[in-house]
Amino acid sequence: MENHGESRRPKSDGLCPRLKEEANLYIIIKPFRRKKGQPLWSHRKSKAAHRPKLGGVRIMEKYEIMYILSATLDDAARKAEIEKLHGILTSNKAQVRDVKEWGVRDFASEIKEQKKGYYVVIKISADNAALKEFDRLVRLDNLVIRHLITKDRD
User: CATH number, domain at 102?
Assistant: First the structure.
């Protein structure tokens, strides 16, 4: 006759010693099963696999850059600063497509202890390296109060 007083536990043969010691645990082990033809590695491909191979070609994308110059500059110094900033872009093989000078405007609140600034908006075609270099040099320039680079949707 069978002994009905024993609990039915799965046999712990082949399990690690730690699991053998814990006799009160019921462990269900499901082996990894792959579908026929599925590789052992993940079925997802990395995002890099979907990117087109460039082969050394620079991708020129359209961007809009707005920067604010100090309002205390006279006209000659302001023109020289604007030409210097555009020269940074053109020396890095970017193309300046459009330049709009908005002029002197009041700030909503003080920025770097200034109440006014001269706004300039430019539209360019550039690659990432040109933008990084422009961003790096503008951060070091004391005459530029703020700048913003956005992708142009036009």
Answer: 3.30.70.60
